[in-house]
Amino acid sequence: MISKVKKLTVKYNGETVGYLADLDDGIAFQYDEKWVKNGFSISPFSLPLSNKIYRSSKATFGGLYGVFHDSLPDGWGELLVRRMLAKQGMNADRLSPLTKLTLISGSGLGALTYEPTQIADDETDNFDLDFIASEAEKILDDEMDNVNLDEIYRLGGSSGGARPKAHVKIDGESWIIKFPCNYDPKNIGERELQANKLARACGINVNEFKLYPSKLCSGYFGTKRFDRQGEKRVHMISLASLLETTHKVPNLDYMHFFQVVKEICIDKDDLYEAYRRMCFNVLYGNRDDHGKNFAFLYNEQKGGYELSPAYDITPTPNKPEHEMTVLGNGQPTEEDLLKIAKEIKLSLKDCKEIIQIIKYVLSK
After folding, report:
1. Which domain holds residue 329?
2. What is the mean pLDDT of the chain?
């Protein structure tokens, strides 16, 4: 049975980052004294390193700061949490945000973990992809009578995004493998594979990916996790959570993205990487470019943030507009891409070359 929790310790690879407490007037966070001296800001705009007690003034994430909300599953993972709790006779909507944070397994996204935890399972190297796909399809179709919910929750209960996923270990490395939604074509894995190949050919930083074989479809798309380095976890925060806004409302512009990159990234080449991703999304037609599909990683060696590898690169032919606008335009043109380059003072020569390379790759 799930216990209600009023206080949590936030950890990063075994070190105490700080403390979350559910008080009468909202949820409070305070960094640990040792972390203030030796750590880093886990959310540069909202939670600068200091001894003060922080309280979010927004109800966007149920009183949590965005960086903690990033830890919670959404989409497929949230559906599994709801099903798991319903099986125990509990209503997910009645659980506090802190209690929900205790339900994240060791395969949760990013580096932050929370104690106490009420879920002990982690990634596994014992799995059958076709079995997972079949069980996921039953869950999506609300056919719960003969579903091995415990196993599917163990594999994917900490994931985000709409499509079913499993967090698994392959040859000692952490991977995320995706499965079709009930509205996806059966070759969706192949299509995402091709999209990632095109992005890489355009010079975009894409993490290692692979198509895993299936007897039920043309294959399952898998990507190596970039928030893991061996057994070590890497701190990750999404663009939306940095700006304390939900990705479920299309209220961001690519200008916000560039401003954040300028402000927190230690490698200024990340501005051109960000520009390349924007151009690819526009020219390729990936309109699922919301604020949770861009993220930043903390690099301990460099002592600062950098853009994460690109992810969730898929064609979205049924979306009429981009989730993130380009200077206010939801159906941006090449002219808009060059206009925003001028606004952020990038080299027009380099930006035109980026556009030409992407157009060439996509035309082949």
Report:
1. 233-363
2. 92
